[in-house]
Amino acid sequence: MAKQIEPDLTLTTLPSLRAIRAFVAAAKYQSFTRAAESLGVSQAAISRQIKELETNLNTDLFTRAGRSVALTSAGKLFFQTAEQSLCSISQATEKIRSIQKLRRPLSPATPQT
Question: Span 15-94: which CATH code?
Fold first, then answer.
């Protein structure tokens, strides 16, 4: 019988990547509306993701005054790390995609030069 693996608490307690992406965009643009536009989703979706993240972290990440938002001290701390992490993920993704493009064989219909 296979040994049962215990849940990885580091991974299972992390907020969703979707919520982190929404947060980074909202922090970058200082606007939920502009964040939504940049990610191609609704403003309501950004608001839900931010609320999910704040609930997960048990703290407010933004101060809200009407339509304007500003990062709290916790938000500033999280933004710095989250933005760097997403940048690293993006760079690794692009490296892998570049390598895969080089490895693809030419199709028979592609003329060789």
Answer: 1.10.10.10
